[in-house]
């Protein structure tokens, strides 16, 4: 039987021990591995592997011994409880060695969990699981996690009290990180919140989220937009040490100041305008950028965008001989000074 995405989420959390097996396939090996870990843990519990109720098989094991999967399905453990025979990295070429073992499955045998890469609809392996009355097939795709998936991951991590702003930040974070990093970040947040009864806030997420190159450039742009000229040299030095391309800083600066200009130009004011920009600005960054837009005003922000446009043309010019890093640093100083000027 084929599980829909919605039904699959529920099944991964509460699998049915009496089923013959489950096929999990998809192009992203990390996403497939995370779902496989979840369903096996739910089936055999935290001590299942210790009690020898889990048998792991690689595709190469079946090539050497075609009966290895059948033996794992029929083998009995000294300990009571559900058993799992897990076959990793199955391929279409192995279908003739996998399908007979499943056809011979009976009540009391180990449940078979098979993971595979991307499988075509015509795949024998996929068609067998989708057509089996007592087995399931689930396709894992590269789409960003849904809100339901994020909420399920939060519950698994022990995080239940979450503010709406924090949830918005987590949705954004789930789209920026790969699935493994996102899960590790949730675990880090859950440890961070031990003993803290307050709802999860955007500040908590910011304290635990991985520091990326984009975040480092954001630090520079906040320093510039808030005219903290004394901090510019040290921040620029840190970015150079990280090997961040000057052109990347210019592009990020254009994006930041265009957002400020859109907010400052809104008839309802910067605090209203910042809520209309796309992509949306969430969490503490939203209030901070609204304050920056209000401080600058639309006219000075036009001048800032002209400065950044000139910088972009110089960086792209084949006739330019000045070092790119110095050009960017001078432009950032001019922008910071511009905010201090009266208009």
TrEMBL record:
The protein's Enzyme Commission number: 2.7.7.7
Keyword match Transmembrane helix: no
Enzyme's top EC category: transferase
InterPro entries xref list: DNA_pol3_clamp-load_cplx_C, DNA_polIII_delta, P-loop_NTPase
Any GO BP annotation: DNA-templated DNA replication
GO cellular component: DNA polymerase III complex
Reaction catalysed by this enzyme: DNA(n) + a 2'-deoxyribonucleoside 5'-triphosphate = DNA(n+1) + diphosphate
Keywords from the named record: DNA replication, DNA-directed DNA polymerase, Nucleotidyltransferase, Transferase
Entry protein name: DNA-directed DNA polymerase
């Amino acid at each position: 039987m084929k599980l829909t995405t919605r039904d699959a989420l529920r099944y991964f959390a509460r699998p049915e021990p009496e089923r013959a097996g489950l096929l999990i396939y998809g192009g992203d090996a990390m996403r497939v591995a995370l779902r496989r870990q979840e369903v096996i843990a739910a089936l055999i519990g935290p001590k299942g592997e210790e009690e020898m109720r889990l048998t792991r098989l690689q595709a190469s094991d079946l090539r050497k011994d075609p009966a290895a999967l059948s033996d794992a399905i029929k083998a009995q453990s000294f300990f009571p409880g559900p058993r799992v025979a897990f076959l990793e990295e199955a391929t279409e070429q192995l279908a003739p060695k996998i399908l007979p073992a499943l056809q011979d499955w009976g009540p009391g045998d180990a449940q078979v969990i098979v993971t595979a890469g991307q499988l075509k609809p015509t795949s024998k392996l996929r068609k067998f699981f989708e057509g089996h009355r007592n087995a399931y097939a689930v396709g894992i795709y590269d789409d960003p996690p849904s809100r339901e998936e994020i909420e399920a991951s939060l519950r698994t991590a022990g995080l239940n009290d979450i503010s709406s702003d924090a949830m918005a930040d987590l949705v954004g974070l789930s789209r920026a990180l790969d699935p493994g990093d996102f899960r590790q970040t949730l675990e880090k947040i859950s440890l961070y919140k031990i003993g803290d009864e307050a709802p999860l806030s955007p500040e908590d997420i910011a304290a635990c989220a991985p520091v990326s190159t984009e975040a480092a450039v954001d630090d520079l742009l906040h320093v510039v937009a808030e005219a903290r000229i004394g901090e510019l040299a040290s921040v620029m030095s840190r970015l150079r040490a990280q090997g961040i391309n000057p052109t990347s800083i210019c592009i990020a600066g254009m994006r930041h100041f265009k957002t400020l200009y859109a907010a400052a130009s809104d008839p309802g004011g910067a605090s209203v305008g910042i809520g209309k920009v796309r992509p949306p600005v969430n969490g503490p960054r939203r209030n901070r950028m609204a304050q920056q837009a209000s401080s600058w005003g639309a006219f000075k922000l036009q001048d800032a965008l002209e400065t950044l446009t000139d910088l972009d043309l110089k960086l792209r010019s084949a006739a330019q001989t000045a070092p790119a890093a110095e050009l960017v640093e001078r432009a950032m100083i001019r922008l910071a000074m511009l905010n201090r000027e009266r208009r």
